Amino acid sequence: MAHFGSGHPSRLWSLECLGLILGHVLDVPDERFASLDLDEFDDRQLAATSTGGVSWDPWRLLLVSKLWRKLGEPLLYYTVVVRSQAQAQTLSDTFHEHPALAGHVRQLRLEDLYGIAGAHVVHCTAATVLAVWLEVSRYSVTSDPDDIAQAVALSLLNPRRAILHNGHGYQGDIYVPAYVAEAIGTWSRLAYVQWTFGFGSKCKQERAIAASLGTLRRLEVIDIPWQCTPSLEALKLAAVSPALRRIITYKHFTPEIVAWFSSNAPMVILEGADESLRSYYEHKRSRREYIAHFIRDIAPESKRRNEREDAPPMHTIRLPGEILDLVVVMALQRKPANPDDEYRYPTQCLAWYDKKNSTALLRVSRQVREITLSYLVQRPFFGSISKMVSFTDFMLHRPDLVHRVTALEFDTVSVGTWTSRHGESRQEETQAVSNVYALNLSIATLRNVRSIRFGNTVSDRLFELSPSMLDALGTLLQLEELSGVTIGWNRGYPSSVITSQCLARFTALRVLDNALWYSPAVLSEHTPWYSVFNTLHKLEMRHALSEPEVTRGLWKALALMELPLLTSFGYPDIDLAQATPFFEKHGTKLEKLVLNRCRHGEGTPTRSLEELCPNVTELEFGETLEPDAYHSARHLGVTRIIVNEHDPYNLMEWWDGWTKRRRDAASPAPFPALKEVHIRAFWRWDRGSSWLELSDDMRAEGIFVYNSWGEAWRPRLRRPGPEPLVIPDPPRESEEGMDVGAADVAHTDEDIDEDNDVVDEDDDTDNGGDTGGDLESDVD
Predict the structure, then answer these.
(1) Measuring CA to CA, which residue among 599, 603, 601, 602 is closest to residue 625?
(2) This prediction's pTM
C-alpha cells in the first residue's frame, strides 16, 4: 500500500483505493459496449444534454490532481464509443495532440462512417484495440473517398473480439468492395465474433464476411444474437475455420444445419436459447455430470485407505490379470435385487450392467477402475440424449477407450421422436433436433460402433433419421444392427426421399429392426437397387404409413433388391396385391414373418402367403390385432407364434372360434404344426389369469404357451383319477335292502361330482355314472 505526504486529503488514500473510485465512475460496462440496443445510447445522451452535461461528466474527476489524472486517463480511454461526426473529430484531434492517450484504448465502438476523422481514430488505436464494434451495413453502401479511408483502415486492426452489427441491411452488392470482409481476413488474433442478423441473407457482402471468417485460424466462437435464423450455406463458409468450437444462436437451428455440423464439423458445439438445446450442449456441465455418474468422490475412509491411487488394494494385487478381468465382468452383470425384480415389464429397457456395483468397482483402485471402464464403454446405455453428449465428451478426453465402443443403447422414453404428427409441440420439435445433433456427434467420434438400438423391438417411439443422418450412419463401416428408427422424416419441410445410393452405404448391416419407412424410395442414377442391403439377414418394419405412394414405392424397391441373406421379414399390413412380386423373389428364403395382418387387397393373387413363403416356421404378430388376424396368416409349416398383445382376448376369441369350427368340421387348422406360443407382454403366471385358461386349452392340443421369460405354466390335471373301490353289500331279498343299496350308489356319485368340481366336470361325471350302473347290476 503506497501512502503520500500531507496536503490534499486524497493524498492519504492508497493507489488501490483511488483506482476503485475512478474505476467505478469511469469504467464502461461490457454489456453497454456490446449492446445492440442503440436507443439506449440515444436516451442516455439526451438525458446528458438536457442537464447541461452535469449528469455525465466523469472526466471532471481528472482535474482533481495530477495523480488522479494519471490513474484515470487509462480508465477513461479504455472503452471509446463514437456515435457522431463531432465526437469522432474531437477524438481525432485529441489523439493528434496527445498520441499517448490512444495507447490506452482497448475497446473501440464505431457506429457509423466518420470520414478522415474516423480513419485517424482507427490508425491511432489499431495497435492496442482488443475488441471492436462496427456497423458493417454502412461499409456496403459507401462511395465517399473519406469514408472509404476509414473502411480501408479497418485492416490495420487486429482484435481478439469483434461485434458486427447489421442494422440497415446490405446494399450495393455489385459495385462496392467488401471492405469489412477484407479487413476481417487480416485479423489473425480474432477468437470471438458476434454478428447481428448475420449468416442469413445470400448477398455478396455477407458471403464475403462469412468466407473471411472461415480463413481465420484462431476463431473459436461465432455468436448470432436475437431471433436470427442462420442459413446453412453461409455457416458452411465460416465452419471451415480450424479452431472453431462453438456456434451460439437464439433459436432456430434447422435439422439440416445440425446434421451437417455433426457430420462435417463434429467438434463444433451448437448452443441455442431453447432449454432443451441449452441443457444438452453446455460443454463443461455435461462433462461433469457424466464423470460424476461413473466416478463419484471417494469417501474419506477410502482416501485414507488408498492414498496412492496407483497401488491396488492388497486383496487384488496378487490376482492375475485374466482372473481380475473375469471377476469384474461377473460383478458388473445386472442381477435382480429380489425375486419381484425378475418380473419387471419385459420390454422395459435397462442397462446390462448394475450401476451400484459399477460405481463401487470404480472406487477400488486405478487398475480395477480401468478394467471396469473398458467394459462399461463397450455397450453404454443412455437414459437420455444429454447423457450421450456427456459420454461423447468423456470419450474425447479418453481417446484410448474410443476403439472399445461397439454398441449404443437408448431407453424408450428418452429417444422417441416419432409417434404421431398430431399435436406435436415446439418443444418436441426442438427435442428431435437435439437428438439428431447428439447422435451425429457420437457417430463422428465413435467409429467402431456395430450396433445402435433405440428402445425395444415393440416400441412405437422411434428415432427419426433424415437423409443426411442416414448418410452419416453409412460412414460407420462396421455397423451391423440398427433398431428403432425411421428411414427418412418430414418435419414441416418438403418431404425427403431415400435414394438407393444412400442405402447402399450400409455395406455391413445385418439387422434393421423395428423400423418405419417414412420417405419415398428413389433409384439413384449409378446405384441400382440390387446393390442395396446385400448383407441384411433381418428386415422388420413394424410400423407403416398410410400414404399409398410411399407403400407402393417401397414394395417395388424391395422386389428389385437381391437380399441374398434375408431370413426374417416384417411389415404390419401385408397386401398381397402389392407384395406378391417381393415374396415371389424372396419368399423361399424367409424363415420368419412379422405382421399384423395379411390381406389380398385389390386384385386376386394367384398364390397364398403359405405358397409364397413355404419355409416359414415362425410368425410374430403386433400389439393391436383383430381376431381374424391370426386366421389371415394361416400356414401349415408354422411351429412357433409370438404374440405382443397385452391381453389374451383376441387370441382367445380366435382360438375359441377355430375350435368351434373344427368341431363342426367347417374349417381346417390354420397352424396344424403349431407347438409353441410366446407371449411377450405377459411375464407372471398368476392364478385367476385369463392366460392360464388359454394355456390349459392349448396344452390339451399339444401347444405350449410361454410367458416373456420363457416359462410355461404347469398345467392343471385334466385326466380323471382312478375309479373308486366300492365293496357292495350282500344281496337282500327285502325292498328295504334294495333301498340301502341305491343310497350307497347315490352317495358314491355325489362324492365323484364333488371331485369333478376340482378336476374336470365332463369326463369324470361320465365315469361316475358308469360306476353306479355297474354297482346296481352287481346288487341285482
Answers:
(1) 599
(2) 0.56
Torsion of CA 477, 481, 484, 489, to 10 degrees: 30
User: pLDDT tens for residues 625-648?
Assistant: 776 788 888 888 999 999 888 777
Give the distance between the most distant pair of CA atoms in the chain: 154
Q: Does residue 569 carry a pLDDT above 90?
A: yes
Contact yes or no for 95/124 (Cβ under 8 A): yes
The whole-angstrom separation of Cα 66 and Cα 54 is 22
Q: What angle do CA 687, 692, 698 make, to 5 degrees?
A: 160
Residue 380 exposure: Cα atoms within 13 Å on the Cβ side: 25
Burial code of 679-698, b = ≥16 C-beta within 10 A, e = fewer? bbbbbebeeeeebbebbebb
Quote the Cα angle for 330-336-337, to 5°.
105
* Signed CA dihedral, 735, 738, 743, 746: sign only: negative
Q: What was the pLDDT predicted at 717?
A: 46
pLDDT digit string (tens) for 309-331?
A: 444 444 444 556 666 777 777 77
User: In whole angstroms, how far apart are CA 606 and each of 572, 580, 581, 612, 629?
Assistant: 22, 9, 12, 10, 20
CA–CA separation, 8 and 78 (whole Å): 27
Q: What is the pLDDT of residue 154?
A: 92
Q: How confident is the model at residue 512 (pLDDT cuts 50, 70, 90)?
A: very high
253 exposed, middle or buried (CB, 10 Å; 0-12, 13-18, 19+)? buried
Query: Residues 680, 642: contact at Cβ < 8 Å?
Result: yes
- Choose the most confident range, by mean pLDDT, from 202-216, 575-589, 591-605: 575-589
Parallel/antiparallel/unpaired status of strands 463-465 and 481-483: unpaired
**Quick check: 444 and 266 in contact, CB under 8 A?**
yes
**β-pair type (485-487, 592-595):** unpaired
- Stated as kind and residue range, the H or E segment containing 485 is strand 485-487
pLDDT in tens, 328-380: 777 777 765 444 444 444 445 667 767 777 888 888 778 888 888 888 888 88
How does DSSP assign 296-338, residue by residue?
Answer: PPPPHHHHHHTSSTTSPPTTTTTS-HHHHHHHHHHHHB---SS
Residue 346 pLDDT? 46
Which pLDDT value is given to residue 432? 63
Q: What is the DSSP string of 427-455?
A: HHHHHHHHHHHHHHHHHHH-TT--EEEES
DSSP, collapsed to helix, strand or coil, labels residue 464 as strand
Q: Cell 412405437 identifies what position?
A: 460
What mean pLDDT comes out for the span 104-126? 91
Question: What mean pLDDT, rounded, does the chain reach?
Answer: 74
Separation between Cα atoms, residue 329 and residue 375, nearest integer Å:
8
Each residue's pLDDT tens digit, 716-755: 544 444 454 445 555 554 444 433 333 333 343 444 344 3
Non-local CB neighbours of 68 within 8 Å, separated by 6+ positions: 10, 18, 22, 61, 62
Residues 6+ apart with CB under 8 A from 192: 160, 161, 162, 219, 220, 221, 223
Q: What fold is seen in the domain 78-250?
A: 3.80.10
CA distances from 411 to 347, 379, 424, 459, 480 (A): 11, 13, 20, 10, 20
Which residues, 6+ apart, have CB-to-CB distance to 466 below 8 Å?
Answer: 255, 256, 259, 436, 488, 489, 496
How many angstroms from the chain centroid is the CA of residue 772?
74
Other C-beta atoms lying within 10 Å of the C-beta of residue 269: 22
SS3 per residue for 718-729: CCCCCCCCCCCC
Q: What number of CA atoms fall less than 13 Å from residue 692's CA on the CB side?
A: 11
Give the cell for residue 151: 473502411
Question: Any idea where the domains of the chain sit in the sequence?
Answer: 1-58+65-76, 78-250, 273-446, 617-716, 735-779
| DSSP 8-state assignment for residue 193 | E
Report H helices in 377-424. Answer: 385-396, 399-402, 412-415
